[in-house]
Amino acid sequence: MFNKIYSVLSFLIIIPVKNYDIKYIAQNMYLFPLIGLIIGLIIAILSFFLFSFLEGLLLGFIITAFIVGITGLHHIDALSDLADGLMAKGSSDFKHNVMSDPRNGTAGTVALIFYIIGMIILVSYIDEKTKLLSMIIIAEILSKYSMVLQCYLGKSAWQGMNTLFIKEMKNKKKFLVSNLIVVASIITFGFNFYYTIASVITMLSVSITLLLIANRSFGGISGDTIGATNEISRFFIYLIHTPF
């Protein structure tokens, strides 16, 4: 079990743990929410200390930078690629080529700017330490679960790394275990019942909406769709926690 956890941890964070074969990581995708819990706890511990002497935009900037940094820009890059693909006009193959291009297009660049600035602002508005810590942990658990859910529900738009993950998450037993991890985690760390329920509904709405958009635009989901769902789910979970 520890080896399985380490394999997923090595995939979702930039901190080097150990190199694993991508097929083995895909087999353990159902553990994504557990890794989300670990990542959330790490960020929450940092935020706990920062909240004591920082506030406003500076606090938002540092926490956002840490979130982006610990994940190695992995899924933010997917958000950029998805934006470029959705804005491209043409066939599914053409959109695939656009999304595979390592260069950012205009849509991808704008999406990244809005995402980063938005995250900084949203975090800066949280004025309660307990609420901030709970939000961070719940957001990481649910955003990682959103990728599991998409792979369980979706079909592959084209052959690639995404195919391995989608195939593995068709296993109902693994999907059940993933759900149990989510339920146990949010019961433990969801300090506010109403915000927790709203977060779950938000994550489900984002995941299903992006799944439908991807099906219409690409004929299925890609690795970029899955990764972008992680980022967009987190963003909207932060949004509903923000006391504007």
Structure report:
With 244 residues, this protein is mostly helical. The chain has one domain. The chain is built from 12 helices and no strands. The longest helix has 26 residues, at 193-218. The mean pLDDT is 88.
Brief overview, please?
By secondary structure, this protein is mostly helical. It has helices spanning 2-12, 22-27, 32-50, 56-70, 74-87, 92-100, 106-125, 129-153, 161-168, 172-189, 193-218, 223-241. Helix 3 (32-50) runs parallel beside helix 10 (172-189), helix 5 (74-87) packs across helix 7 and helix 8 packs across helix 9.
What features would you highlight for this structure?
244 residues; mainly alpha; 78% helix; globular
Number of domains: 1
Shape annotation: globular
- DSSP, total strands: 0
The end-to-end distance, rounded to whole angstroms, is 43 Å
Radius of gyration: 17 Å
**pLDDT < 50 stretches:** none
Helix content, binned percent: over 70%
The helix/strand series, from N terminus to C terminus, equals HHHHHHHHHHHH
Q: Please, what is the average pLDDT?
A: 88
Structural class: mainly alpha
Summarize the helices and strands and which ones pair or pack.
Blueprint: H1 2-12, H2 22-27, H3 32-50, H4 56-70, H5 74-87, H6 92-100, H7 106-125, H8 129-153, H9 161-168, H10 172-189, H11 193-218, H12 223-241
Helix pairs in contact: 3-4, 3-8, 3-10, 4-7, 5-6, 5-7, 5-12, 7-12, 8-9, 8-10, 8-11, 8-12, 11-12
